[in-house]
Automatic annotation (TrEMBL), chain A:
This is Amino acid adenylation domain-containing protein. GO terms for molecular function: phosphopantetheine binding. The lineage of its organism: Bacteria, Bacillati, Actinomycetota, Actinomycetes, Micromonosporales. GO terms for biological process: amino acid activation for nonribosomal peptide biosynthetic process; secondary metabolite biosynthetic process. InterPro entries: AA_adenyl_dom, AMP-bd_C, AMP-bd_C_sf, AMP-dep_synth/lig_dom, ANL_N_sf.
Amino acid sequence: MMIRGKRVALPSAPVVHKRFEAYAVAAPDAVAVVCGGEHVTYGELDARANRFANLLVSRGHGRGALVGVCLSYSIDLLVTILGALKAGAAYVPLDPTYPPARLRLLLGQVPDLALIVASPATAELVGSATVEIVDLETLRNDLQGRPATAPDVTVTGDDLCYAIFTSGSTGVPKLTAVRHEGWFNLLNWLQDEFGLHRGSNNLVVSAFGFDLSQRSLMTPLFCGATQHLIASRNFDPAMAYRTLERHDIRTVHCASSTLYVLADWEKASGGSALTELDHLLFGGEPLHVERLRNLVGREAGGCVLLHQYGVAECTDVASSFDLAGYRPGDHEIAPVGRPVHNTDIHVLDERMRGVGAGEYGEIGISGAGVGAGYLNGTGPESARFTTVEVDGVPRRLYRTGDRGHVNEDGELVVAGRMDAQVKVRGMRIDPADVERALSRLAGVRQAAVVSRSTDSGDTELIAFVVPEGDDLAGDELGARLLETLPRNMVPAEFVSIPRIPLSPHGKSDRFALMDVLHDRRKGQGVRG
Amino acid sequence: MTGERDKVFVDEVRAIWCRELERSDITPEQDFFALGGHSVIMARIQRAYIDEMGYEIPIDEMYRNPTIASISAYLESLP
């Protein structure tokens, strides 16, 4: 089974920042970015990015280099990203809200990082002896002396534009690389297919470490619109909603769980800024349509709701479904629709053959968005990049590990994972990654982590811990994990048990573990 | 007098936390995130501070003050 995406011709050099540069020439006085009380025009942003690009090139960090970016949302963040791209380099997003220990673990996975751009406070926390850490403020004098014109660097569609961390299957995060052609194709599809234009001002509400944030950051600059950033370190619903109300914002990209928060906020405050947007683009986890009641099923002409599916390995979005008029049947999963331009979606059996109509299988993606693979080593995950024949021609294909089928309307439906990975508030997590962090804590002999759906339909992690000696307090384990893991990876509940029950295959037995949890709940009726 | 006002904040905040975290036993010094708290619950608590106490607290302040004791002290410091 294959769903074929529309074929659309791309320019001979599909390079993302060239589109931005064209607006900087055509409309230099248009506002590119608003953040807090500050703003920058297309012309100024282009000049500042050119100066940084020239600095990178002069230091030998040009085409093919990797530039780490560990900044909060700010105008400097976009200067850094665009500067890196103009130098021919790719950038690596590093979320500055992650614990320093996690950031150091991630940095250990990046081969040949040229330098890291970070604020002075973050630089101290990350403290790398091997990689130079700079901030644009201290470079100010150096940058002023650089040319405001772009460096003479040739960039092609096959060059990398960003590389982003995603969960691996062995407990080690993988650094997956995206090519300019794939990113250009995605942004071009958004612009073409949904009519985004110079008035399609955007507000970023997702954390910088997510692949969707890279799209949310670049889409307005690709369309000549204004980008709005909130300088808050963490997603702030009150501030986000007020920004939607006070500025002429037309688009928001987010994880489904963030959209529920915004929709609840709109309901509680009696506002209408969210429903009056032109486009809401969301996905990344199973959708609970009933939590979007005030948005879904409205009259035609309202906000376009795009339920999207994709993986970081294939440039973020692979397919999209317009929820206009969608009325879910009982227990029905909302489809994720049809492919992005120049992209094909396959449903495959274990021998890589297409399954029959309506049958379930593993979802594979081929086409423009397929990325350049993992930059940190050749673990078992690398075998997920393979080839498939489309129209008699071999094409690269990525096996996503997601399970799904194509429904009678020809739309893709995603129904979970082939493996143990889970999505918690939009973040793809391998329980083995959490188990590894837990078993490194003093007093923990062994740990098993499983996921569970809550009554409200969210996914949460439960940790089962075999202590070395005395029972361990759950909230203390949580506090210690917060020093090494992002918050979404810290289990909601910790259960002490004398040993981990094993399945006949020698793996931890999820069902036996959930029985333990159920019995404890009956006995105690409390969490933690 | 300050002490009594502070105690009022602690009790109101604790009531909101217990409801949103679905726990009955939170002490003023326990860490929100170690109690299983996350960004979505944080957002609900932010809304509750507005609706029930009349204060809009920036999320960053809530992250900086992850215990009932510290966020109550922060609320108390507001004009």
